[in-house]
Amino acid sequence: MASSPVAFEWDQGVHLVGSVLWFDAGRHDVMSFVSSARVREAWRHTHALCTDRTRALLRVSRAGFQALVVPYGRRISVGPLELTLVPAGFMPGSAQVVVECDLGTVLYANNVCVEGHPLAEPAQFAHAETLVLKTAYGRPDFAFPARAEARARIVEAASRAIADGVTPVFLASPAGKAQEVVRCLTDAGLPVVVHPSVARVDRVYRSLGFDPGPARVFKGSPRRDSAMVFPEHLRSSPSIRRLKRARLFWVSGLALAPDALARVRVEEGIPLAGHLDFAGLMHFVEVTGPRRVFTVGTWAEEFAAALRGKGVEAGALYREAQLSLF
């Protein structure tokens, strides 16, 4: 890859070289932009920069979480840098950030959802000379159905299980995905029971004006006509194991990865994702129009190669190992 006027490095997160600014850093002793409350252990940061809604959601994990709060569309200065946050469309407060500096403009994007849904601000597109892009599903075999189709599959799976006298249990990330699952089930008129950790996030969603729908907190035994929504990492929890008749469903983009789906051991995987699939990533690059792209993610190298095949200057900044939650 040709040398870039704007340099980045990876050290448990993306760092804009020569500045104090990091992006979704895994280390917590630096000033980091936090793109959403879904970022792993972002509540540990002591020098975070995010939207007010992301701050509110991170306070579910740490009541005293503080951050430099930046409204969408307002330009702020961080030393010689000018920063502007734009909605990412994934969950309340999720954001991309445009950075303007002497060497050019940069767009950093992590979770982006361009299909509008009722539990997030509509995504916006921004333009920059350099794009740093999370490519969680940067392989051509990741081709997600339309969000409406995935939601319909969730409702159909729950209805079928209840009709069979079985409790449907949906496993999803407790912040972001679980709320979408609750919303599509309650919109269909199905009673829903949620794990306490999901209920805590639901309450903050409602306070922010995004209602996932009515759901009772799980206390040991759901009603026969109810669907359950649990965090995906609790797949083998005693609460689930004690259910006499249960049918498990995993709601994740990784449901399209046969090896990941096999590890989860569920009845069905439903690919409702918080990241863009391969075609969506390609479209995002096309619309934002960068001259160069840095990729970060499990398939960062594969996606960068695909971009180069289309004549885009691109290189993998960091290839993440695929996490196993089960």
Overview of this structure, please?
24% of the residues lie in helices and 25% in strands. It is globular. It starts with 7 loop residues before the first strand and ends in a 7-residue tail after the last strand. The protein folds into two domains: 180 residues, Ribonuclease Z/Hydroxyacylglutathione hydrolase-like (Metallo-beta-lactamase, Chain A), CATH 3.60.15.10; 124 residues, Rossmann fold. The mean pLDDT is 94. The chain is of the alpha/beta class and 326 residues long. Helix 2 crosses helix 3. The strands form three sheets. A seven-stranded mixed sheet has the order 7-8-9-10-11-18-19, covered by helices on one side. Strands 1-2-3-4-5-6 form a six-stranded mixed sheet.
Please outline what is shown here.
By secondary structure, the protein is of the alpha/beta class. The chain folds into two domains: 8-141 and 274-319, Ribonuclease Z/Hydroxyacylglutathione hydrolase-like (Metallo-beta-lactamase, Chain A); 147-270, Rossmann fold, CATH 3.40.50. It has eight helices and 19 strands.
Any idea what the CATH architecture of the largest domain is?
Answer: 4-Layer Sandwich
CATH H-level superfamily of the largest domain: Ribonuclease Z/Hydroxyacylglutathione hydrolase-like
Shape: globular
- Pick out the low-confidence regions: none
Instruction: Count the beta strands.
Output: 19
